Amino acid sequence: MPPSTARNLVSLFRSAARLTSQRSVTSAAKKKRSSSSAAAAAAVSKKKEFPPSSADADLKKYVSAIKPSSAAAKHLLKTFKAPPSSTISNPHKPSLHAICTDGVDSDDDDNSAEQMLTHASSLLYDEMDLPWDDEERGDNKIIGNVLDMPWLEKMTNNSIAEWRKEFSRDRKQKWVFKSTQTNRFGRMVNVCADKLGPDAAVEVFGKLGQETGLKEYNSLISICIKKARGTADEDVSTEQIYRAYQIFISLRGKGFRIEEETYGQFLMYLIDFGMVEEFFFFHEIIKADNSDSLPRLAYYEMLLWIRVNNEVKIQELCRAAVADDAEDKSHFQECILMALCESGCKEEFMIVLRTLDITKFTSVASLEGVFRYLGKLLLEPFTERYLLALKKTDIGADNISNFIYEYAISIPNLAVEDVILKFQTLHSKFEVLPTSAQYEKLVSFCCESLKVHDALNVVDEAFKVGTTLSLETFHLILDACDQSYEFNLVNQINSRITHHNLEPKVETFKKMIILHVKMKDFEGAYELINDLQKKGLKPSTSLFNIILSGYFREKNKYRAMDVLKQMEDADVKPDSVTYSYLIANSHCEKDMIKFYEDMGESGVAPTKQVFMALINAYASLGQFEKAKKVVLDERIPVKNLNEIKSVLVAALASNGQLSGALKIYEEIKKAECGLDPKAIRCLIEHFQSEGEIDRSLQLLEELSDSRYWTDACFRIISHCVRHENLRSAVDLLKQLKDKFNHAEIALEVLFDEVFCIFAEKESTDMQFGLDLLQAVKEEIGVRPSRKSLDFLLSACVYAKDAKTAIVIWEEYETAGLPYNVLSFVRMYQALLAAGDRKSAAKILNKIRQDDPHVRCVIKACEETFIRSASLEKKRKKKKKKKKAFESTVGLLDVVEAKTK
Description:
Layout: H1 3-33, H2 35-47, H3 54-65, H4 70-79, H5 109-128, H6 157-174, H7 181-196, H8 198-208, H9 214-229, H10 234-253, H11 260-272, H12 276-289, H13 294-307, H14 311-323, H15 329-343, H16 346-353, H17 364-376, H18 380-391, H19 397-410, H20 416-429, H21 436-448, H22 452-464, H23 471-484, H24 490-499, H25 506-518, H26 522-534, H27 541-553, H28 557-569, H29 576-584, H30 589-601, H31 608-620, H32 624-630, H33 638-654, H34 658-670, H35 677-685, H36 693-701, H37 709-722, H38 726-739, H39 744-760, H40 767-778, H41 786-799, H42 802-814, H43 821-834, H44 837-845, H45 852-899
């Protein structure tokens, strides 16, 4: 953050403190001058509450019974204007309304209530996601009393039922929360503050009269700080932090104790931006309000000095931690040590560690952090000493097992099987049995690394010692099998579930059916459905949809149609997803119409999947105009329209209609809507000509915050390499490096793939390859890997370029890469291909030929380049002799003709 912002914040904070004090004094003076006001204040003080105004009562009634029509809600949204920013007036008012406002006089209550009606309507409209109809609304229609709005006046009973089902499905996908009033209100605070801003959220809930708790205050502070972090505008950042500070001061004024949940987010913001003066301004406030927070304040102070790289202050805190004789010395040391762990300060960590009494730690989470850092530093002697000390306390075997797990998984560059071995060894050494929780965490660790076989070994060990694992653990393994393409392990997993008497759920069967279908074992999938029915569970439509999609992927339409019969036998009704698969895989328009009509007759309403299937089916049949007309269907919900248009863009681009796809893309942009990232990636994929590279780069900018960016970027790089567009390729590689700056392995793989693409190009000119290598080294600052150089040597073979091969050969030594058997063989191959047999013979003498595979490769090289060259030479010589003989014969014919 710029220094000017820091100065502004200091001034704002101190001005706010003075302003709050002055307002309190002014308010007290007014009360002394007015006897009636004094009596009212006494009554309020006695009752500890403020009676709601009539406007507040109306608003509560409105929010609880609001039933907006589409036209009214749309008009409210059109005329909505956010209220101006507010500041704190009186921190002693009992509702959120008082936090960031200057105070509302009784004369302004009606206007405030009217503003709140507009805010609440806007918020509720956003949350309901109803299919509002723009065409049937008159812009100039006068809106009456909002309390008289009819409820969904233009929806039939069938459409209401279908909407409820769709809305319920979407909500289940997005939200998981306990149905309690406290959690619902907390969620409302977050949603309202996120959509309307903290100021408007404060007004809304203040008008509702909701008793405000510490959790709601902390949520609002967190949103302000999040907005401050997310902006590059200095003024916006300063304003948001000042608002958070206002809420903070109001919270103190209401008598809440300032705990770490409140002040921690403030201090971390100041630490991240290195704002030392502001940090200690807050430090003093917190210390005065909560003296018990001193050890935790020391933790944040250490983080601050580490952030600004003040070695003197860091050493001072470390010495204080070692020499402090206060009663809370152990807690102080604990907090300092955690800051050092999180910041990776090894030397200071060791200084405090040697004087530490690990048994006096107050937090299990802190102990976990210490053992993780011990693993990272490979300090096993300290680990064993502390485990032994903790075992003598009453901390419990479960926690000891947890510390061993945290230590083992934190050891760097340790293979998964070695992590498991270390986990087992330490448990055996300290005579502690792993708990089911630790076994499950170890299985999860294996699954994250896609080491499914190791995960199954851990499961077997757990059951062997009598530990029971949850069904969710097997779900993790099934998911890992899917991601690692270990589909065949599904039978082993199923047998373990059965053997250990675990009761599989429908979700378990679904995951196993997916694996069976992916390895084309459809009979196994049907057997699982039968097993499910034997257990008294009814198969869902989604299980049959998985099998149906599998048959369609295999282009087996006959067996796909048989799935419908199986569904009928099981008394399972097709849903919209079923019909979307049938429509998308139709081979003619007649079949499409039939399936669509069947869907309507069965009472299944079209969903976005059905509309997408229609678009893809029409596009695949070449009926592009009909595909475009699908998006005009009035039954498409407004919230899904942009997503369906994105599918249309992708379908047109994939079927050669790039100009039509770009036209729709431009229409979406003019409407200020965003195109789905998958559609943008599809557009980029189908830009094949050199002249479209600039357009591809523009599209790539729209994917900057998407997980599809890397894939799309690499597609453009591949295009640039194939067409030898060096400048664009290098610029994109720089962006890739910035994105994967902390992932060296991923970055190396990506650069290797670039040189692989060049080698596969089989160019006869190596100049582009050399220029690319030079740019990677000098402009991007990446040292070429062995694989990259191997690919370039392979390219030299096809180009028959011995000179370039020698240049690349020297790059191995420059990069500090020792030559190995494969590099010698590739160099030998390149020299032979170029016809430099003398140099090739020297390389051949350095190749160890004790490996039969190496001998086979050398023999193949000789047959390809030496014998073929000899045969070619003989063929040319024979052709030359034949040509000379024909010339001689022709000359004799001429002489003979002249003689006659």
